[in-house]
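notes to self, project folder thing:

trying the whole complex as one job this time. last attempt i did each chain seperately and stitching them together was a nightmare. two parts in total, labels are on each line so i dont mix them up again. if this works i'll redo the older ones the same way
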Amino acid sequence: MTSGEGEAKGGRTGRRPGDAGTREAILDAAREAFGRRGYTSASLRAVAAAAGVDPSLVLHYFGSKQALFVAAVDLPIRPREVLPGVLAGDPAGAGARVVRFFVGIWDAAANRGAFLALIRSAVSDEPAARMLHDLLTADGPEAALRDLGFPDPELRAALVGSQLVGLAFARYVIRLEPLASADADAVATLIGPTVQRYLHGDLPVPTPEERP
Amino acid sequence: MTSGEGEAKGGRTGRRPGDAGTREAILDAAREAFGRRGYTSASLRAVAAAAGVDPSLVLHYFGSKQALFVAAVDLPIRPREVLPGVLAGDPAGAGARVVRFFVGIWDAAANRGAFLALIRSAVSDEPAARMLHDLLTADGPEAALRDLGFPDPELRAALVGSQLVGLAFARYVIRLEPLASADADAVATLIGPTVQRYLHGDLPVPTPEERP
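result (full assembly):
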C-alpha cells in the first residue's frame, strides 16, 4: 500500500527534490516492486510512477537501477558490524544468540519487505543473486567471521547462511508449522545447536570438485 | 532452450494430440516458463506457444493451470515412498544419508529445472507457496516420518525442510562456496549431523505464539 499512496502523499503536495521523504517514497516503491516482480521485471519507470515522481528523479537520487536495488533492500543491520556483539560472551550460547537475533530482525514487520524483496529477486535474477552472494560473503557474515579470527570463515559463513536462509524460507515464505508460529526463543532452542556447530564445531573443509 | 525448440520439434511435424511427446513438450515449456516467470506471470497461452500446440490442448491434457504446474514441477522422487528406504539401516547415519540423497537428486541437471521452478514460483506466488508447503507436509516428508512412527513428525519435517531448502538455495541459487563446489559426500559430512539431530534428536516442541 505504501507505494500506491506515494503519489497522494508526495508528488502532488509540493515536496521538493531535496526532501528526505521523496527518497523514502522511492525506496518504498522500489521494495514493493522488486518484492513483487523481481529485479529484472521491475522497471525504474514503474517505481517512479508508484512514488509519484519523475523517472529522472530516481536516477538523480540513486544513479542506476542496481544502486536503487542495493539501497531498497538495504539490510537494516550490518552483519559485519553487529555480529561481533552477538558473538561476544559465552561461546557455548553463540548459535542460539545468532538465531534469536536473526529471527528478531525478520519478525519486525518493517524489515520483512526488504528481506523478501532480496530473496525473491535473488531466486529469479542473476544480478540479484550475485548481490545476495556478496552480502553474505565479502560484505557480510564471512567478513565478520574473518575479522573475529574464526578458522575457515568462508565455510562457516556458508553453512550458517544455508540454515538461516532456509529458516527464513520455511518460516516466512512457505510458513511451515510449527516453525512459522513458534516464538524466537523456541526457534533459537531448536536451530541454535545447528548454528553453534557451524560456528564452533570441528568441520572438515571440502575440496572443490567439478560437477556436471 | 527446450521450450524454444518445442515448435520445431513438435507442433509442425504431424505429432498427434495423443503423442506422449506432446505432453512432454508442454511440460518442458511449462517448467521453463514457471522457472523464468513464476506461477502467476506464466500464461497457459505462452506455454502452449512455446510447445507449439494450441492452448486448448494444454487444457485437454492437464485440465487447469494449477494441475499443469503440479505436473511440471513433479518431483522426480516421491518423498513419502523413498524416505523409508533412505532412513532404513543404521539410524546413526540417517542424517548423512538424507543429505547425500537430496544432493544427488539436485545434482542431476535434468531435475534441477523442475526444483528451481518450484522454488522460484513459491517465493513469488502464494498458490505455488501453498503447493510447496503441501509437498513438504501432507504429501511429503512429514507424511513419511509419520508413517515411520517418528515422534513430532511435523516439527522434524519442518526443521529438515528448512536446512535442505536452505542448502539448495546456497548451493544452487546463490552458489556459496565452498558448498557450491563440494561433492555430495563432503556436503553430507558437513550437514548430515544437522539433519540427524532434527530426525532423531530430543527436541522441545514449541507452542504456537501470535506474532505481529
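what i see at first glance: Chain A has two domains: 6-71, 79-200.
need to look closer tmrw
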